[in-house]
Design brief:
This protein is mainly α and 190 residues long. 81% of the residues lie in helices and 0% in strands. The chain contains seven helices and no strands. 38% of the residues are buried.
Length: 190
């Protein structure tokens, strides 16, 4: 019972910090990356305890990518003060698809064979999409929001299955925010 209450409070903190993070990112506010670091640290613990190993490891990568996002948004090579939103070049999209296939296959296999992870291939595939989406967000590629919408729809089902009901509700809200982010970012393309 004590572990459930501890995880419940941790989940509430994860939900709040995640919403702050994504809301700020939809507004292209650099402080979203700070909140990403906090929420990712919280969710690393939650997902590890829920035996979603790829999701837990993903949170560590999110933290590293958040530092990259801060750097990229703050010190872009463009003459403008703010990195502009753009569409992903075809060659990068192709590389992302290859990464998705390789990562899903290798990570899913390793997690199923050595860690006994729950839903290893689905978890690995969504982790790959999340990595790609986060990288795309750091580069301000518009299509990141479409990938987030797709992944978050599937995450809702996984988290309901794992009994992370609050996190499932969070991901429904993240879908709404991703739609808002897509609309806002699309307006800012020059």
């Amino acid at each position: 019972m004590t572990e459930y209450l501890q995880q419940n409070w941790l989940e509430v903190l994860g939900i709040i910090t995640s919403l702050i993070c994504v809301w700020l990112n939809t507004r292209q506010n650099i402080w979203g990356w700070f909140w990403a670091i906090i929420s990712s640290g919280i969710y690393a613990v939650i997902f590890w305890q829920s035996n979603l190993k790829s999701d837990a490891e993903l949170q560590i990568v999110f933290i590293l990518l958040s530092f990259y996002g801060i750097y990229k948004w703050k010190f872009s090579k463009h003459t403008e003060v703010v990195l502009p939103v753009s569409k992903i070049p075809f060659q990068f999209a192709l590389i992302c698809l290859i990464f998705l296939a390789l990562f899903t296959t290798i990570s899913g296999y390793l997690h199923s064979q050595y860690l006994g992870a729950s839903l290893p291939y689905l978890d690995a595939g969504l982790t790959a999409i999340s990595l790609i989406s986060t990288w795309m967000t750091t580069r301000k590629y518009l299509e990141n929001w479409l990938l987030w919408i797709f992944a978050n729809i599937i995450y809702v089902g996984i988290y309901l299955y794992k009994g992370l009901n609050g996190t499932s509700i969070l991901y429904v809200l993240l879908i709404v925010l991703a739609v808002k982010g897509f609309v806002n970012w699309r307006k800012s393309i020059k």
